[in-house]
From TrEMBL:
<dbReference type="GO" id="GO:0019843">
    <property type="term" value="F:rRNA binding"/>
</dbReference>
<keyword id="KW-0699">rRNA-binding</keyword>
<comment type="function">
    <text>One of the primary rRNA binding proteins, it binds directly to 16S rRNA central domain where it helps coordinate assembly of the platform of the 30S subunit.</text>
</comment>
<dbReference type="InterPro" id="IPR047863">
    <property type="entry name" value="Ribosomal_uS8_CS"/>
</dbReference>
<keyword id="KW-0694">RNA-binding</keyword>
<dbReference type="GO" id="GO:0005737">
    <property type="term" value="C:cytoplasm"/>
</dbReference>
<comment type="similarity">
    <text>Belongs to the universal ribosomal protein uS8 family.</text>
</comment>
<dbReference type="InterPro" id="IPR000630">
    <property type="entry name" value="Ribosomal_uS8"/>
</dbReference>
<keyword id="KW-0687">Ribonucleoprotein</keyword>
<dbReference type="InterPro" id="IPR035987">
    <property type="entry name" value="Ribosomal_uS8_sf"/>
</dbReference>
<dbReference type="GO" id="GO:0003735">
    <property type="term" value="F:structural constituent of ribosome"/>
</dbReference>
<dbReference type="GO" id="GO:1990904">
    <property type="term" value="C:ribonucleoprotein complex"/>
</dbReference>
<dbReference type="GO" id="GO:0005840">
    <property type="term" value="C:ribosome"/>
</dbReference>
<comment type="subunit">
    <text>Part of the 30S ribosomal subunit. Contacts proteins S5 and S12.</text>
</comment>
<dbReference type="Pfam" id="PF00410">
    <property type="entry name" value="Ribosomal_S8"/>
</dbReference>
<protein>
    <recommendedName>
        <fullName>Small ribosomal subunit protein uS8</fullName>
    </recommendedName>
</protein>
<dbReference type="GO" id="GO:0006412">
    <property type="term" value="P:translation"/>
</dbReference>
Length: 126
């Protein structure tokens, strides 16, 4: 039984890229689905589908190199990290993204800035 689905999801993505898997599977969890949608819109993973078994996320490679160089869970169950819109930290000098859980849903930092909505920093991707 998994207590922190987002940390498990981040680890599965990292392990999937290290093992050069074409896709990963994950049980149907709403927050994970929303985070996978953000990763797909930002171009870090391929197609995200709901299947009978759960979620199917195609991993993306460019010239045999993973689209994600690194992914890290920031806000954890023991230590939550919140940020206002003006205080969102840069990831890799602006080359990566933060994924936030806001009152308007799970968003990338670019979307959050457009909607002027801060929130909990779930993960960083570069």
């Amino acid at each position: 039984m998994v207590n922190d689905h987002l940390s498990d999801f981040v680890t599965r993505i990292r392990n999937g890229y290290q093992a050069r898997l074409p896709e990963i599977q994950y049980p149907p969890v709403k927050t994970v689905w929303e985070m996978a949608q953000v990763l797909s819109k930002e171009g870090y993973v391929g197609e995200v589908k709901k299947t009978e078994e759960g979620l199917s996320i195609k991993l993306k490679y460019t010239a045999k190199k993973p689209a994600i160089m690194g992914i890290k869970r920031v806000s954890k169950p023991g230590v939550r990290r919140y940020s206002g819109i003006k205080d969102i930290p840069k990831v890799w000098g602006g080359l990566g993204i933060n994924i936030l859980s806001t009152p308007k849903g799970v968003l990338s930092e670019r979307q959050a800035k457009k909607l002027n909505s801060g929130g909990e920093i779930l993960a960083q991707v570069w």
